[in-house]
Design goal:
single chain, disordered N terminus, 408 residues, elongated, 7-stranded mixed sheet, alpha+beta, 8-stranded antiparallel sheet
Length: 408
Amino acid sequence: MQAWHNPYGQPEVSAAAWRRGSDGVVPMVSSDHALRNFRHFPVEAQRSAQAAAEDREQRLRTIIKKRSGKAAKLSVEASHRLRRLLGDDNWTELRDLMRQERMTVRDLLQPPQGLESSYDSLNQARRRKAKAFLRSRDIRREAIVAIAGDYHEAIADVFAADENISRGFHLSNNLDKWLSLSPFHDRALPWGVFEPDDSENPHRWEVFRPPFFGFNFGFVPVRNDNFVVDRLHTLNPSVGDVGISITMEDGDAGDFDYASGDAFSAIAFAFVPPATGLVEVLIDAQCVEATHRLETTDEWGWSNSHTTQQNFLMLDVLHPSVAEPSYAEMSNLDETTDDDESFHQEKLTRGTHYFAQLFSAGPVPAGQSVVVCAGTRSFDKSGTNDVSIDSTSDFRWYISSVEVRISP
């Protein structure tokens, strides 16, 4: 595939992976693997980053296998519990009824007659048929709901976020904290108003700002057959532009379904630690977009679902002694619903500055150049039984500055 060179001085990327936006050239990448470019950095930093990346990828493969196996087992167990509750004959007849009613609703929505049909009315009609079926067999709706409740609680544990998570901060509402963290914060860093610290203090701060010349991004999906999970990476290192959009869609939720999408986009730079210890960073990020969207449709009246979306600012120091990235949670959505609902939430303020104080999950040695990544991560999860899911999260940040030091 032909390679294309970004005139802004960024690494070469396949021409098919980029789109041109109103604010410049923005890569939109589609890959299930972590991709990175550190070729502008010292060879020493590239080697340690490569070794760390290989360890991370092995860890991710283990995580995917573990999550997939546990989620699939829970889905099967819930289905078996439901079958035992209904009995084999009733279970088969119910599944046949559900398949037939889905096809009936679909057919009634086709043009030209379907142009005048009400989806809500058709959905209510099929729910009445399903409820009548349960009543005729003396099957209690509450018993089905109890099985679903156990399933959703267990599936949430499978997709629990990492433990290495702290909380991010709205800068103007936490100005005193921001001013106390670094001597550089008494001036306007985004406008370049600062003088570097040239002292011999091994714990002095160093400031990194756009343009950046390295990047790192990746995606880890887990799902069963009924879900479609995808993402869109926004990454323009020359201006510190990083973003993630994750979609999870289950338009034909016929059983106990599950999905998660875990993706990150980050800029990267090289840092030479003046002492051995944990890397501490202060990320100043300007919010460009921060939207949570979720639409659910209860198809049968006993259905249920639980969907979460989380966005983070992140630090990753790619060195073999650093076990994993560190995260600061910035925004989340957490909705449990058994009804037809639509959620649109934007909790962060566009154009506003936010910050994160993060520490590496392991020490780095003095004098050895290392690759430091700063960016954003989104981790979205959904478990559903017979509720259709349309979930989208859109987050985009400008990394205004990253201050780095070895923590005292």
